[in-house]
Every structure is written in C-alpha cells, then in structure tokens.
TrEMBL record:
Keyword list, A-Z: Membrane, Transmembrane, Transmembrane helix
TM stretches of this protein: 6-25, 37-56, 68-87, 127-146, 158-176, 188-206
Leader sequence residues: none
Name under which the protein is recorded: GDT1 family protein
Organism: Paenibacillus antri
UniProt keyword annotation of Transmembrane helix present: yes
Amino acid sequence: MLKETLIVAILFFMTSIDTILLIFSAIRLKRHPQPRFVRLLVFLTLCAAHPLYSFLADTFFRLPGLRLVSAVCIVFFAVRLAGEPPLEFRSAAVPKRTIGAIVGATLWLDALTSIDTSVLVSAASPSVWVTVVGNLAAMSLLVALGPRLYAYVTDTPWVQIGIGGFMSASAALQLRSEPLLGGWGAPVPLYAAAAVLFALTALYGWKRHLG
C-alpha cells in the first residue's frame, strides 16, 4: 500500500506543477495582500478537487470535445503566463480576489490541466484512500514550494517564456485521445501543432518582455 501511495503522490506532484503555476498566475499571488491565506485556500481546494477529478476520470473526462476545450483554455493561460511582466512593471493596484473567486479559479484551472493526470491516477490507484493520501502529500509539497517556484519563473524571463511555450505545446499533445479530431489526432499533426504553439507562445512572451 505504501508503494502505491508513493506512486500516486509522485504522479500528482509531477503532473500538477503547471497547474500551480497557472493558478498563482491567474490569482496574481504576488500582488495579493494575504498570500498565506491564498495559499491555504488553494491547498484546501486542490485537496478536495484532485481526488474527485480522479474518480470522475473514467466517465466525465472522456466526453467528446472536453479535451479540445481544455487545450484551448490552457493555451490561453499559458500565453498569459509567458507574457506576464516582472513585478516591478505591473500595475500598483492590488487585485480584488474574493474567496469565491480564488476557489473558482483554482477549481477551473485544476480541471483544465488535470485530465491526463486524473486518468493516470485512476489507473494507478488501487483505492480511494491511496488517492486521497497521495494527493494530500503532493499538494502539501506543491503549495509549500509553489510560491518560490512561481516567483523564480516570473522573475526569470527566459524560464517564464519556456514554461509558457511548453504548456502550450503540451495542450496540443493532450488532444491525441480527442474523438472529435478524427485523423487530425494522429501524432504527426499534433506534434506539428505543438511546435507551432510553442513558437508562437515564446514569440509573444519574448516581445512582451523585450519589446
């Protein structure tokens, strides 16, 4: 049981790094007046949402069109992350984020980026308790390290641009199981689309940072 829990925790952690970056970017963590409260709220929300998404993976996440919608939204937020300016160049206005808005953004972005994660965890986890405990361990580590990782990414333009491009590319690759695409879901078209999205996202981020 310990081995399975460790595997699930590693799966959750490795596949949720992009999720935590997108969430902190969407809620503007650096500009929030209560960052510790936000981190706690994100942690509690992810602990509740991740196991639920895993239980729904075999049904809801296989609906036609869901991966396509998810990919489009991920590309949007990835481009936004790639072009996010350093803290000193941002507006001085403090973002107004209510509890409902933070929870909603966390749930929404977690759902968008967790389709493949949920399918993997659903297959690897032998029980509900393994999923819950593995998720709790992974989310604790992610939320603890997430702010420092997010600060490093957004203060290092080339890393920020690269991660944004990688997220855009991975959004295209998750369409390999999308039934609505038919033949376009073959490896060659998807890898070509991933390369184009990476280049466009990186170009946008480069232009935003260097003018």
